[in-house]
User: Fold this.
Amino acid sequence: MSALSIPTVILGLSALLVASRILVKRATQIPQAARISVIETLDACIFAAVLSLIIITFVVQAFYIPSGSMEPTLMVDDRILVAKFLYRFEPIERGNVIVFRYPLNPSRDFVKRVIGLPGQHVQLKDGYVYVNGDRISESGYTIHRDLGNYGPITVPPSQYFVLGDNRNNSEDSRFFGYVPRANIIGRAVFIYWPVSRVGFVH
Assistant:
């Protein structure tokens, strides 16, 4: 989902601002009043950059949806906010839409829906999903049911089985396996763009 690491960009910008502040402070040829004004502006920019880094690292981060694997829940070009702190206070539950680092290439971010929790038995049969032998209700978020069969499998400890809502057009746990808990970035909670799509993610 995100090819460039935003925290890395912010760190680079912060380093540039700090270096600029040092140079301006030492530039005695600049009038003192102007120098103080520039330094104060740079201080404010450094503070804003550090605050942004803290928010993105620990609180919330924006992501872009490039594919239709989660339609109709998330559409191509949607921009979403992902809460990175929620799972510090509450457990991951079936049905949550999560963003995670792709197990086969952690530099890529994926978004899918949690279907199987650690220790649960999961099976796809004739287009329906069964968890621990019970068929789960997926009305309202799945389209194009995949009529193929998968499993049954047992989700290992500290791992999660995830599926895309657009079952016929989704690279998910059926193809790349389970998602380790350590790979989960956070829960998708809000669509903020485009305006016509603004709302909570369900």
